[in-house]
Amino acid sequence: MFDLKFIRENEKEIRESILKRNLDVKGLNDLLKKDKEFLELKQEVEELRHERNLISERINEAKKKGQDVSSIILKAKQIPKQLEEIEPQLRKLEEEILNLRKKIPNLIEKDVPQGKDESQNKVIRKWGKIPKFNFPVKTHVEIIEQLRLGDFDASRVVSGNGFYYLKGDLALLNQALIQFSIDHMRKKGYEYIEPPLMVSKDVAAAAGDLDAFKLALYKTEGEELYLIPTAEHAILGMLKDKVISEDRLPLKFFGYSMCFRKEIGAHGINEKGLWRTHQFNKVEQFVFCKQEDARKYYLELRQNTEEIMKKLKLPYQINESCSGDLGAWKRKGEDIEVYRPTIKDYAELMSLSNCGLYQANDLNIKFIDKKGERHVLNTLNNTVIATSRMMVAILENYQQKDGTVKVPLVLQKYIGKKVLGEKKIVKKVSKKKRL
């Protein structure tokens, strides 16, 4: 969230951004009103404290001169009572202001398209050929179960809905995707991170809208710790209260982690399968930079992910979020969506975000320039790969008539196979040869 100084100095821009999101500016108006009350009361407290100091000096001077100080002492005794009445009001206003600040969304970038909801998001590019099949297309669940590459029924018994067992070739494909992504990002010069799988409340809150996240996050009992829904949260928190030298920027990281989310689809093929689950593997990329360089790295993060899609030869489109569908913590955002033959449409696979100064401001993450001045860092993130959804895309787009699934060429060296689920043919040995 933004600090009060920034909100006061950028009121007009913030108001315009809120309206562009199709939100009510009442929260901003209430915040500014409370802030004014707070500043006035704070000024009153400072004046009373100053007056108390002056009275103390007068009492000392009067005593030295042998003058009667009873009236002055009486006045001095009234000041603590006045402060006792005002200070609780200040604390209450501080709490109200903090709650209102949390509801002020990030500043939208000027080129974000206007829109009310996701139906008005804008497709800005498509790549790849839509596959054509001369046989009935199977869902990824049908493929997995027929090839015995996973078990959704056993996982439901053990853990409940939204979990899964991967077996054999599919488990190897999962690991192949992770290693392929790690190799891809290392070649890009990003530093590899394996983060903790739990973060504190303040880190979770800084990453986005905690009230909304609470519906998705798993919280540990008796502790203010949350299982991460993405490595982004833990990488963001890694620099909490740090000041980075300008000559070290940008800081480019990518991290692999297990991820945990409560959300799950309610119907259709998402009811059973890998597309929307409580637990999944993900590789995330993250950049800390100066705000003026954010656009450059936004495009770089997008390119890194597009290259993954092209290497896997999966048809995709880039869908830009309109103002009404943009998360409160984002300045700009896009989804990279893969084509799914089973639904004959594109579905979200990766998510790209420029969060501006919004996240780093909460965690006091700054850089120091050559003049010795400190500035809040800009944060950006994008999915490299979410293996569960990527496996769905591969199973559906690479399925064959005989029920097997081709392995994308770039993954074959990692998995050591060209086809998933292919039966091994054992040649019969003649009796003469056995002898």
What's the architecture of the largest domain in CATH terms?
Answer: 2-Layer Sandwich
Q: What's the pLDDT, averaged over the residues?
A: 89
Termini gap? 80 Å
**CATH class category name of the largest domain:** Alpha Beta
How is the biggest beta sheet arranged? 8 strands, mixed
Helix content: 40-55%
Counted beta strands = 17
Total domain units:
2
Q: What is CATH's topology name of the largest domain?
A: BirA Bifunctional Protein, domain 2
**Radius of gyration over C-alpha positions, nearest whole angstrom:** 29 Å
Low-confidence stretches: 265-270, 424-435
Q: What is the percentage of strand-forming residues?
A: 15-25%
Strand arrangement, largest sheet? 1-10-11-12-15-9-8-4
Category by helix and strand content: alpha+beta
CATH superfamily of the largest domain: Bira Bifunctional Protein, Domain 2
Summarize the structure in words.
The protein has about 425 residues and is an alpha+beta fold. About 40% of the residues lie in helices and about 20% in strands. The protein contains 15 helices and 17 strands. Strand 11 and strand 12 form a beta hairpin. The termini are far apart.
